[in-house]
Amino acid sequence: MRSVRTLLFSAALAAAGLALSGCGFTPLYGAPGVIPKLAAIEVIQPPQRSGYLISQHLEDAFARDHSAQAQYSMRLSLAEARYPRGIRTDNVATRYEYVLTADYTLASLPGGDIAKKGRVRVEVTYDSADQPYASIAAEQDAEDRAAAEAARRIQLELAAWMATGEPTTKTKQKVTPPPANSTTPTDLPTGG
């Protein structure tokens, strides 16, 4: 009985694959050149802890090829905020919302012309325990989850942009490095 179900499931998957290929559907990462271009992005790490986390998640998401020369450079500007959400009767927060906003600028190398700008915003919640170490651990876990989700969204935006032909920029702009202690985002237009 189990082998019949497995056979029917396999046949259904094969039929779905044929139907999708017949209508011109191409998987995002199956588009020519997307994976090598993602692997050729060098991420410039922002200074704070969340900058380290998102840079590490982006390196993993892009599958950065360190043996090849980078074709793109990505600069990030991060803004973080925490909001108390679960308030007890004694006016102490038991739950917080952590918001991470990441503005990114992708520049082509070696010239530094801006290829794409974008912004992602991620909200995650975490419990605030009465024990200080548990509360710190929960807060740091929220930062890591937010950084992982922001990296995933940036990866998807860039992969979709690269799969559709990378529109050229209308004006040539150079990337100027942000001040060393800047952690607030600037207003960047989204899209390419």
Describe the structure in your own words.
The protein is α+β, with helices and mostly antiparallel strands and 192 residues long. The model is unreliable at 169-173 and 181-192 (pLDDT under 50). Helix 3 packs across helix 4 (132-163). It is built from four helices and four strands. Strands 1-2-3-4 form a four-stranded mixed sheet.
- Report low-confidence residues grouped into runs of 5 or more: 169-173, 181-192
The total of beta strands comes to 4
Shape label: elongated
- What structural class is derived from the secondary structure elements? alpha+beta
Q: Taking all residues together, what is the mean pLDDT?
A: 77
Give the strand line-up of the largest sheet. 1-2-3-4
| Percentage of residues in helical conformation | 25-40%
Q: Gap between N and C termini, in Å?
A: 53 Å
Q: What order do the SSEs take from the amino end to the carboxyl end, as H and E? A: HHEHEEEH
- Give the C-alpha Rg: 21 Å
The major pleated sheet works out as: 4 strands, mixed
Number of helices: 4
